[in-house]
Amino acid sequence: MKKFVKFSIILMSLLAFCVIFFGFLFVGVTIAKFSSLELDKSLITSPMLAVEIFDEENRPLTEQNSFNKKFASLEQIPSDVKNAFIAIEDQKFFSHHGLNYKRIVKAGISNLLSGKLKEGASTISQQLVKNTHLSSEKTFERKLKEVVLTKKLEKNFSKNQILESYLNAIYYGNNCYGIEEAANYYFSKPASELSLEEGALLAGMIKSPNNYSPILKQSAALKRRNLVLSEMQKCGFLKEGDCFKAQNQPIKLNLQTKKSSPLNSYGEAALDEACKILNVPAKDIAINGYQIHTYLDKNKQDLLEKAVESQDFENADHGAIVIDCKKHAVSGFVGESAYKILDAKRQP
What we know:
Structural class: mainly alpha
Distance between the termini: 76 Å
Largest sheet: 2 strands, antiparallel
Number of helices: 14
Radius of gyration: 24 Å
Helix content: 40-55%
Strand content: 5-15%
């Protein structure tokens, strides 16, 4: 019996060694294969992405269909806001060289046990690379590309440059890409005027903008915001009294005024539909260079816009749509609201 147990232990040890050895070998070979990948420095310094959308005559839509249009310099962003993101996303940001190996090992073990890529252990540098260069697919190949490009990112940019680009590239929900757009939409103010509580709320959202939406899921958003504040205290960014005071503040939103909201345009609605059809985020559509061809009839759209503009809705949310029943197509759409009108249960 003892011999059998001893033999089993030796066999399992050999199998574990082989799995680890060939695993590292596979990773090494794959990383070498991707070593020629180029880092597009322009996407880091100006992380704006655009999607080409065309009407039924194959003319490009002139309305806004780009992300990260507004840029906030790192000097403009309050220290509390920057610290909120570091505390919740990457506490070792200023000490590692792009990769946090302890987190990678921990996530690797978790993923191995679950058989899925649940945890990514991504640093801020890795997230910036993913948001500017790569799609959102969860594969080992994409992750290894991310590692290669992250090492190149760290060699070419300072930590402050990386943090600045990161804050201006990530997604904050409700078609907001970048912290300036998020501050404008959720609080009707520039990023330079964000408070501690507001910054912590935005930092908490980015893990899952839908699940931590302060509009749709305020309770979850509040818990997440308070977790960010707790992590800030643990990191020494906040004193205990300031943390307690901030955690007891309610969420206060001041959503962007309707006329300046980009949510309810034909182009945005077409982009949302494309995301649902392809089952990918809008960022992936931009990175992959997809073109979106629509049934927009410019004449009908112009007439619809004039008809709506001639009415006095007394600041009420409103929208109008033209449908071509023969083509089964939407020929025109306009809307004015701080929310997505087409997501409403009762549509116009």
